[in-house]
Amino acid sequence: MNKTLTGIKPTGEFHLGNYVTLNAAQNATYLVADLHALNALPFEKVTEYRTDLIKALNALGYSPIVVQSETPKIMELYTYLLPLVSEGVLHRMHAYKASDGTPNMGLVTYPVLMTADIMASGCTHVAVGEDQIQHLELARDLVAKYNSHYKTSFAIPEAQIVSSTLVGTDGRKMSKSYGNTLPLFAPEAVIRKKIKLIKMDSRAPSEEKPDAEENIAYQILKAISPSVAADTITPLKEGRMGYGELKTVLTNTFFDLFGNARKIYGTT
Ligand code: TRP
User: What pLDDT score does 178 carry?
Assistant: First the structure.
């Protein structure tokens, strides 16, 4: 049977965009990629976010969870992979090109560590966003090279592309760097306020809104509950529902969906 690996770096507060990405993978193993996070953040921060992320994954019922830094096999495979990789190839990678021009060696070799993650997991498939396709191509090449060099038979991983583009509260991609996320485990008042502040237009509830699919609150609702979103679309279009009411639906759906996980997490 297919087994899918999905990885997440503990680089910030766990938010709805992370949830949507993780939730797209079926029969998955959940990797906490804390060594990857060290390329970008101080150790203390990584430690803090790792604890939160593990707590979040447990509260949401995701298992099994693999913590990268607690998996010596990953470090071992990484070391054996390095001689098979040329520096030039790594310089053409997205991880390197997207950096500020003075990347540390961890960032340069990031796709190699990611390959080791995949090999150690025993997974056949890897759930990745579009920005990771290139890294996965490299991983496939490297696993083949590894097999022929070390006479092993690791599975060549297949990509399972998941959409990584949930819209954020300001209409841009939901991302902690934009400050437009809905953090899953923030206090209730914070979530309510963030939903309230989602950008809207000034049309009256009774106006027809043929473009309602483009509304930010609608898109977020659709990502977390397609069925509830489906119930709102006709009333919105026909002018029987306003965007204020839609936000109430979104707020209620959010707490319905995550109330239990939030209780386990211990949020207020
Ligand atoms: N590189 C992924 C990202 O930035 C995270 C990641 C690390 C990962 N190791 C992985 C994803 C292994 C899938 C499999 O989003």
Answer: 92
Ligand 1, residue 114: give the atom nearest the CA: 9
Residue 4's SS3 state is strand
The total number of structural domains in the chain stands at: 2
Q: What is the pLDDT of residue 256?
A: 97
Among 111, 128, 161, identify where a domain stops: 161
Ligand 1 atom nearest residue 8's Cα: 5
Question: Considering the domain boundaries, does residue 156 fall inside one?
Answer: yes
**Residue-level pLDDT at 25:** 84
Helix, strand, coil % (nearest 5) of the chain? 55, 10, 35
pLDDT at 238 over 80: yes
Which element (helix H / strand E) includes 51?
Answer: helix 43-59
Cα 224 from Cα 184, distance rounded (Å): 12
Same domain, 115 and 212: no
The pLDDT value recorded for residue 203 is 86
Q: Are residues 52 and 89 in the same domain?
A: yes
Mean pLDDT estimate for the chain: 94
Domain that holds residue 232: 176-265
- Residue 206 forms part of a structural domain: yes
Q: Which of 132, 158, 165 to mutate to test the pocket of ligand 1 (most atoms within 8 A of CB)?
A: 132
Q: Is residue 243 part of a domain?
A: yes
Distance CA 20, CA 13 (A): 14
